[in-house]
Amino acid sequence: xxxxxxxxxxxxxxxxxxxxxxxxxxxxxxxxxxxxxxxxxxxxxxxxxxxxxxxxxxxxxxxxxxxxxxxxxxxxxxxxxxxxxxxxxxxxxxxxxxxxxxxxxxxxxxxxxxxxxxxxxxxxxxxxxxxxxxxxxxxxxxxxxxxxxxxxxxxxxxxxxxxxxxxxxxxxxxxxxxxxxxxxxxxxxxxxxxxxxxxxxxxxxxxxxxxxxxxxxxxxxxxxxxxxxxxxxxxxxxxxxxxxxxxxxxxxxxxxxxxxxxxxxx
Amino acid sequence: xxxxxxxxxxxxxxxxxxxxxxxxxxxxxxxxxxxxxxxxxxxxxxxxxxxxxxxxxxxxxxxxxxxxxxxxxxxxxxxxxxxxxxxxxxxxxxxxxxxxxxxxxxxxxxxxxxxxxxxxxxxxxxxxxxxxxxxxxxxxxxxxxxxxxxxxxxxxxxxxxxxxxxxxxxxxxxxxxxxxxxxxxxxxxxxxxxxxxxxxxxxxxxxxxxxxxxxxxxxxxxxxxxxxxxxxxxxxxxxxxxxxxxxxxxxxxxxxxxxxxxxxxxxxxxxxxxxxxxxxxxxxxxxxxxxxxxxxxxxxxxxxxxxxxxxxxxxxxxxxxxxxxxxxxxxxxxxxxxxxxxxxxxxxxxxxxxxxxxxxxxxxxxxxxxxxxxxxxxxxxxxxxxxxxxxxxxxxxxxxxxxxxxxxxxxxxxxxxxxxxxxxxxxxxxxxxxxxxxxxxxxxxxxxxxxxxxxxxxxxxxxxxxxxxxxxxxxxxxxxxxxxxxxxxxxxxxxxxxxxxxxxxxxxxxxxxxxxxxxxxxxxxxxxxxxxxxxxxxxxxxxxxxxxxxxxxxxxxxxxxxxxxxxxxxxxxxxxxxxxxxxxxxxxxxxxxxxxxxxxxxxxxxxxxxxxxxxxxxxxxxxxxxxxxxxxxxxxxxxxxxxxxxxxxxxxxxxxxxxxxxxxxxxxxxxxxxxxxxxxxxxxxxxxxxxxxxxxxxxxxxxxxxxxxxxxxxxxxxxxxxxxxxxxxxxxxxxxxxxxxxxxxxxxxxxxxxxxxxxxxxxxxxxxxxxxxxxxxxxxxxxxxxxxxxxxxxxxxxxxxxxxxxxxxxxxxxxxxxxxxxxxxxxxxxxxxxxxxxxxxxxxxxxxxxxxxxxxxxxxxxxxxxxxxxxxxxxxxxxxxxxxxxxxxxxxxxxxxxxxxxxxxxxxxxxxxxxxxxxxxxxxxxxxxxxxxxxxxxxxxxxxxxxxxxxxxxxxxxxxxxxx
Lengths: 266, 964
Prior knowledge:
The complex is a heterodimer. By secondary structure, chain A is α/β, with parallel strands linked by helices.
């Protein structure tokens, strides 16, 4: 079983590609950087990968709206290939700005199997960018690789992370039908809309979504900044209590799970 | 050019944070505004059809979930405003870069629409009983910046700026042979050259010798290259001080330290864009700190943002290309609650400056994907006219690529942003004093940044560096192409063809292209056989690049436009012809005395007041707006402790993923001490920077430092005398600490003239310290971790309340300012380092502003644990009362948390460094100070948290939980 090939998308303004690359490599995957210009020149190249990863950043400056310009470009230049990629067994991950791109593209939550914008990610209620650690719970969801029932601490760092569904019906669907894969929780482990545990005021406390097939996952917080033990904000306390550091930080499990599923299916 | 107008509105059912912010700002400006709704406006070329505009607005411009939109056709009748609602539009002035407009064009062409001209703006529908004139005034002040933006009242934007006019291509010859000294000075003043009589005379003599008049572009080039900003004429000039002549102050002090110490970890110092030190066998770390004070005073957002962009390019252009890995930012402002009446005309209110600067750093640093990991903020009323904005960047590069050399025959390649009229005369502007009219006169010197263009340039340069495609590189900073090409050509020659430069718009005269300080540009020297590959890489990265000319061996800098020569300068004269400046300096110690105050009766209240001082209080509101986690290198966040809200002394990053080798980064600055003695200020800055780094686990023997001077008007001999005194003080301490300076910068003439009143900043040296550690797991944070552990104060406490925050809260300055005992200071740094390496301590925090009392309060708050302190146990010099023990700001003191069973180990590692067990960490939430068994102050963590967090809690969010 060879290491699954992972496409790390690059584009002007994407800036978390190196840590995402490293995390996938550490998980046993075979990540490769592909610039959007290269991908557009040869769109079928997408099919030679098992995983598409859209890293965080400020693609095209997040001009007009976060992720808007890159989503627009992918939609018009790759179009149906994205859905075909999933049909052929591909997996996709969007972190932070990558999540915003997948949402604008309509790949998430994609409840009807069509590329349409069903939810939006908009300005935090605080009206500015914020960088802080949050606690998440991985919910029972459709996602085929995210381990469920975990409490995870990852850092969030965004200005537009408030997830607003198109209407109440869709909100209920996301909650009840396993689309809301990750939620912000408080110190008692309960989903919360209270600041700062919920850093952007997302109703329903939704931090991350999966799609109808469970093969796509996107989230605002950054597992790609929480994969080493020394990334965790309280690693010194852990070292003091346990006498040693664990192998991984809380974000590593996601990368390992994706590589595991991608190799098993490959 | 008439255009389509598309306006996007948030649906009434959804929150409109931008509108809310505008409403609050207008109310704060005194208007009776009841509601504001915001609009995002787009102007699109009239060539589009109605259907195309509608499709585009729906698919791209409006959010399908939240927004609605309106479309107005070109030449459409502009309908008047709705009753009771007034319309205000804010748009960029012609010539200011609009990055969003470029993205709009891209999205349009991606959709298959034709590429047409575009523009963007903001608009507000203001409801309430407001006079139009008052609204116009408040909008200009609170919602727009007159330097960059125009405000339209009631009428709507209808047209796009045209392509620009025809450029003036004539070669202007400027006769100066006949001018006397006064005439030369006038010429310099009228042309904004910022050259003095002696320098103008040297230029006149040079052209006399050549037997011709200088061309305008030549004069402009000389003015840029000889500016204080580029040449540091004062610090490298001759100074007469106390009967001695110092030939070159910089060489006698800062450079002297580095040369004398000759540390083996220094790879490249004082020769490149940044200082370079060895990181491991393969890589080096480079660091540079700049100031961007003048632009930030006038346009805080753009000034701070382009400052960050500029220093990132410095690192990118260090050696043969370094990868930026961290930002550090330090600011000095007047207090944000300064009454408006005390703010001189022509100055922005300090709160506006603070918020603009923070937003500027945020909106440039975050999109660049470089973590902002460290900084500090200081407050003093004298910064009202000249706020200080220090921006720093750190990079990593292969040590083998730390040296660069232009080869004759190399192509001069420029890449990145296009050239516009922005930032013309920035370098010379920064060498002049600000005054009431600076806002209007100097607007050309101010600009806003476009981080994504810089990011593309960075991606292209770093790939080209990996492929070894260039022989040298530098950034376009002050002076633009003229400085970049002029510097690279030194000792060789260059020939430039400016007509090849891509422009933002038409109409630039050749000399404007040559000295424009348009952002986001780099200049590379590229061998012929690598040119094609380099241009390909740039294309792949969507980064514009073009060949600007060739490096020659002619010894001349020849600049042409369409073949016509506009400048033909002798490079030797350009670089070596600057006459040595001679200045008088005297030092007159201010007559000050310690105040005679009644005995402190409420130490708890005094501690709370000290914690609430702006310079001491929590900076979390600022810190959280910066991305400090990107690149996944963080091993010590800016905030620490169980709730991630305690202050960290220094940042720790692991620049190479997978390796635990780390960089510890800290800084020191205390402007207030300068009012008593600049020597004390200088020493304390270095000591504080070292304490911060060593308290976090850094190695005092593997630490490099940077100096950044910001001073008042050094043409005044007294100001210069203060600077000389400070320079020698910091020299002596750096020699004792064995810390080499690897880079530095100065910003002089920070003086504001308001009629007859002159406001001068206190002379400041910011010291940035950077240490390399083999294993970050031996670094530590400041928060207390275990109930029952001991608190050990290392160092000696003296009667040094002069300049202290405690006395500041009483409205006093005093005279007994802290000084640094060189030997004791070194002993403390080394003792603490040995202790942290042996893992003796659980936490460490340096004592700085607010003294021991603040250090204890912050450590307890971070760990959400109590503390009990016996002030009588503190090692002191002479008899000190409890107030002095709590609040004295004596240097070289670090407070450690140590588990009882590790105390013998700690003592063994401290050797004979003075220290004492002064208390212990307790359960519960009380922090108590006692003296000789008698309680002096008792505070709860809640009290401490409120006092410490409230002052800069601009959103009212930091204290939510406490209030609950």
